[in-house]
User: What shape does this take?
Amino acid sequence: MKLKRARVTHYKSIDDSGWVDLDLITCMLGKNESGKTAFLSALRRLSPVMGDTTVFELTDYPRKDFVQYRRLHEEDPATAVMAEFELSREEIQEIENEFGQQALRSSILTASKNYKNQLMWTFEFDESESLKDLISRSADLPQEVRELAQGVQSVTELREVLKTRAEASSEIAEFLLNLPEPFQSTIKEYVVEKFLNRFIPRFVYFDDYSSMRGRVSIQDMMERIESGDELDDADRSFMSLLTVAGIELVDLADQTSFEFVTAQLEAAAINISSEVFRFWNQSDQLRVQFSLGAANPNDPAPLNRGSILHFRIWNDRHQVSVGFDQRSKGFVWFFSFISYFAHLQMEEEANLILLLDEPGLNLHAMAQADFLKFIEERLSTKSQVIYTTHSPFMIDSNNLQRVRMVQDLIDRGTIITRDTVSNDPDTVYPLLVRLSYETAQTLFLAPHCLMVNSSADLVYIQVLGELAAAQGKTRLDPRWVVIPVGGANNLPTFVSSLGERYMSVAVLMDVSPGHRKLLDGVNSNEHIRRDSPIKWVQVTRTRDADVEDLFDPQFYLKLVNAAYSRELDEPLTMKSISESNPRILQRVENFFKKSDIAGGKFEPHRPAEYLLNNYHTLQFEIDETTVDRAVQLFDRVNGLMGDPDYQNTIPGSDPIDSNRPSGFLESLGN
Assistant: This one.
């Protein structure tokens, strides 16, 4: 079975999460206390792994409705979790082998569990067809039963008919007395018991509290296991470690063979070190040590009696060992998880779905990236993985479709969606940080960087480049990576990030005396390569201008009026923004400030967004003069590329198909 989607209702902070689509790897992104853990906790209880006895408790019901629900609980227990699964081809085949190909109507089915911890299944199943197939396959059925089965639609109906004939037929009476298993209830119930409850994956939950302890009392652990006491997550992690190491508790308790126990512990240390340190890239100087000693009576219980297994980590670089739980929290968590996962692979026969709550929370950013790789390359090849995070480095920027936003709304409780637009900025913030990091990485690695003021400039350059290419004219060479830097004052920071990786860097901004002085300072900096200085490009040759000045002023005002239609009492005209400043962007900004429109602040990206979203119609209103101005600009910028193999971007030499007018725009606009 593969988990397709899940829904949690009436559980802790969650009134109704809504149906949440789940991929092979799913990242649940949200703030602290947003309900991420509650969602995983409910899933865990649907079908817990062996040894996990967590169940739904009445007190898990949302407190605001608890009093009303408590009266209804016995008669009408609320559903807490639902999950939609898809059967594999092999699982379908097993069911069809027993009940025929017409019985199971769909490979999709739903499992749910309520507050009485009753697991229920909903699926499309034709009991009439399955009964026919069952009768035809049962060679030892009495002939009378076969005949009576022809006119009924279900096993329940068949049993009722047989009961009316039992007194007159000893053969039927004998059959009812020793009913074969499929005839004892409904066939759907039989399918659930024999197949679905076996097929359903087991949910494995792992969080910070699952980390192992550095010392364990062997006697205490054995006594608790023998008495049936519930082990906590840390205990289960420790027992997993012993399983992976091939050690039995009873062997550690046996003090009669020092050499045997020592050999076991040394072999275990080698095995565990080999398994864990294949994936721990933060240090290659570590190895595991086990030692067994008598308890110190002065230690707190249960460490004050019997034999104590000490778990230590040796550091070759510093020639010292420390107790396991004295290592960094990140290492302790990582080690515990690797051991637990290895144990599950060895012991569990069912499919597993891993629920990782804030994995790698204490890991360094690069170690988190390593763990993401571990999820992708190791965990997801065996199991589905659902993990929660609020760390930017636990987001795979190459697979953003895996991210689900978790938000706690005042009037609705926890909701989980794919939608990043309607979520609050704090929830989306880690995603934005991750994307910003990726943008920075692109900038660091790009050999040709063109720095512009804002994201609006990026949009306009792309739009005009698409139009120019469609007309067979020059566009910006696609090897330029356009980076919005937020103004000339930020240039030194961005340039210093480049180091010596670039071949050419250009700045497309207005050139004021202050900006020239800033550029001279950057180029004269001893940390910048002197043989490849930054080049400055003016938008136009004739006057001070921004990228917005490439457009016809009337067209640009149309974008402004459309973008600010709700804030403007009447549309802007050339007369309303008439002043001596040649830059239309500056004139609009001054008018907004003077007239206190939109709080007196004009945001240049809004007209650009409007153009992007309405490009398919607005492209025909951009005149040829505007395109020609842009082409002249592209020629000047392309000519600055420090590449001897540079050719002007014309149809036939452009790596990007010039006949594709708006593919990039569609991807951004949508």
